[in-house]
Design brief:
By secondary structure, the protein is mainly alpha-helical. The protein has 2 domains: 115 residues, Winged helix-like DNA-binding domain superfamily/Winged helix DNA-binding domain (Arc Repressor Mutant, subunit A, Orthogonal Bundle), CATH 1.10.10.10; 72 residues, no CATH class. Strands 1-2 form a two-stranded antiparallel sheet. The radius of gyration is 19 Å and the shape is globular.
């Protein structure tokens, strides 16, 4: 057994009440990356994702039916958000080559640790339900987030309706009302997920319909 696996295997989950006031999944990720760094464990995609799930299972589990398993999508999205910020990323690197904490990421990780350690464990606090993957808005959000149109927007800041027509398999400029209604529903889900870039992308698309 490797040293890294031994350390991660020994992680005990925090009660939800200890981290309920942490304002984002990315801050929980920074806390976890700091833990790995301090233990001398490489901050790889697998180590970081597994450690995040073990520390904070109520945030990073699959859904209500499979709470014992991690949500690959939610973990992947959190790491992406931690590393794509142009001005203040929490991580440098990539899933392929591994990550390194930035100074800002280390600061956020330590700040989050202080908040967690200073919060009273209250078992009476109800754990919010995790969205099921069968949820239509969530499924549609995932489809938008992985679409070629959104990837292009992330790279250039430009939008093209051609990608939307292709995504929904419709003739250009047809079914605009139904597509707009669907995108507004997805935008609400995106807001819940605190994905600001995708929210901005959908706003721009919706104004063109």
């Amino acid at each position: 057994m490797s040293k890294a696996k031994e350390i991660i295997d020994k992680i005990k989950p925090y009660s939800y009440s200890k981290y309920k006031d942490v304002s984002s999944n990315e801050k929980l990720g920074a806390y976890t990356a700091c833990f790995l760094e301090e233990k001398g464990v490489a901050i790889t995609f697998n180590y970081l994702c597994i450690a995040m799930f073990k520390f904070f299972p109520d945030k990073f589990c699959c859904d209500e039916e499979f709470k014992e398993y991690p949500s690959v999508d939610r973990l992947n999205r959190t790491l992406m958000h931690m590393s794509i910020s142009k001005n203040s990323p929490l991580l440098n690197g990539s899933a392929k080559n591994g990550y390194r904490l930035t100074d800002y990421g280390r600061y956020i990780g330590k700040e989050t640790n202080s908040l967690i350690q200073g919060t009273v464990d209250d078992k009476s606090i109800m754990i919010p339900k995790v969205d099921s993957y069968k949820s239509s808005p969530l499924e549609d959000y995932r489809k938008i987030a992985s679409s070629e149109g959104y990837k292009k927007y992330q790279e250039t800041g430009e939008t093209s309706m051609d990608y939307i027509w292709s995504l929904y398999r419709v003739i250009p400029y047809t079914q605009q009302a139904s597509i707009k209604k669907k995108l507004i529903t997805i935008r609400n889900k995106v807001k819940e997920e605190q994905d600001n870039m995708c929210y901005e992308y959908l706003n721009k698309i919706i104004t063109q319909l």
